Amino acid sequence: MERWSQKQIEAERMRDVLLLLEHLLHNEKTTAKLIINCLYDIGSVNLIDKKISNRSLNKMMKAIAKVSKPVFSIIALRWLQKNCPQLLATWLHSQVSFRKVQAKKELAYVRENLPIEPKTLNPNPEIKRLRSQVRLLAGTSVVATVAFLGSAIAWISYNPTSDLLLNQTLSKPVAIEKFENATKE
After folding, report:
1. Structure confidence at residue 46 (pLDDT)
2. Contacts by 33-37 with C-beta closer than 8 Å and gap 24+?
3. Could you read off the pLDDT of 104-151 as tens digits, one per residue?
4. Which of 67, 68, 123, 141 is most buried per CB count within 10 Å?
5. How many CB atoms lie within 10 A of CB 76?
6. Residues 30 and 77: beta-carbon distance below 8 Å
7. What is the pLDDT, as a whole number, of residue 125?
8. What is the distance between the terminal CA atoms of the chain, rounded to a whole angstrom?
């Protein structure tokens, strides 16, 4: 009976922790946004540097990453407010329960001492083919994104009144008539 009440008290306290974490993230929305923005700045640059070796493409992708930052920030904040309190509460509970620590250490020791299988050294040809398809799709998506953003910028910067004025000045017959009258005299 005492063991059951102890479990019940522990569950109630963890529920309190969860509510406090939810309250913290709700009230400290600005702090959460700043944390997300800092992590995005670091992570996007490191990911682009790791995945894209072409220097000009690298710079262009970093510029695109800066443009997409506000959208990512909104989505990440919603995800953070929805999932982070539960993840933090679970992690904190695992830190104070002291039960799983020994099992994790034993599992890590067993994994370290396992022999390497030959299958992991030579990947399957199908895996190689799929990896090359992923690279092709990633490259295609980069090109499509650049084309889309380029056309969007061109469309935004397009000013139809400047073309109209240019056509009007080129098609004025008045200037030609004055020139013809001047040469006849």
Report:
1. 92
2. 33/73, 33/77, 36/72, 36/73, 36/76, 36/77, 36/80, 37/69, 37/73
3. 566 566 556 655 555 555 668 888 888 888 887 777 777 777 777 777
4. 68
5. 18
6. no
7. 82
8. 121
